[in-house]
Amino acid sequence: MFRLETEVDKERRILLSGRLRDDNKAASPELRALLATPAEHEGPLEVWVLDQEGGIVGGLTGRTWAHWLHVHLLWVEASHRRLGLGARLLTEAERVARTERFCTRSRLETWDFQAPVFYRRQGYEVAGRIDDYPPGVTEFILVKQLVS
User: Fold this and answer.
1) Is 122 a domain residue?
2) Per residue in 3-30, is it b (16+ CB within 10 Å) or e — as a string?
3) C-alpha closest to that of 43 among 25, 66, 21
4) How do residues 111-133 score in pLDDT, each as one tens digit?
5) DSSP readout, 67-105?
6) 25 domain residue, yes or no
7) Residue 88 sits in a domain of what CATH number?
8) Does residue 51 contact residue 85 with C-beta atoms inside 8 Å?
9) pTM as predicted
10) Residue 40: pLDDT over 90
11) Residue 65 lies in a domain
12) Where is the N-acetyltransferase domain (predicted)?
């Protein structure tokens, strides 16, 4: 007999993540090859733009793992846009990922009304698209080589 639950449970999520990671490593020689290398270690990567009072006017959050930077969020306050801060945030995150965490590629997702043109100007290429996610919107998956 089994029971389904829909509650949010951080401890179960951590347990599930560990079990899936263990199963994936058991099934994949490529993932096993990452063991005990700098690429195996996943970690957050954050870059912030602060004003003179220390308030956040922009930021980038992401993670590095398996030689990849995955950008989750990039935002600049509307009054400070078009000053190059977004490009500076992205460039700094890519620098840290490349030089300190041995990343060779970067990936991110963006919606059609957000910043696909901005990311293409930064050297990202569309690797995939999902139409109607959410309805009426197209999501783009973009990637970039961090080393030549």
Assistant:
1) yes
2) eeeeeeeeeeeeeeeeeeeeeebeeeee
3) 66
4) 999 999 999 999 999 999 999 99
5) TEEEEEEEEE-GGGTTSSHHHHHHHHHHHHHHHHH---E
6) no
7) 3.40.630.30
8) no
9) 0.86
10) no
11) yes
12) 1-147
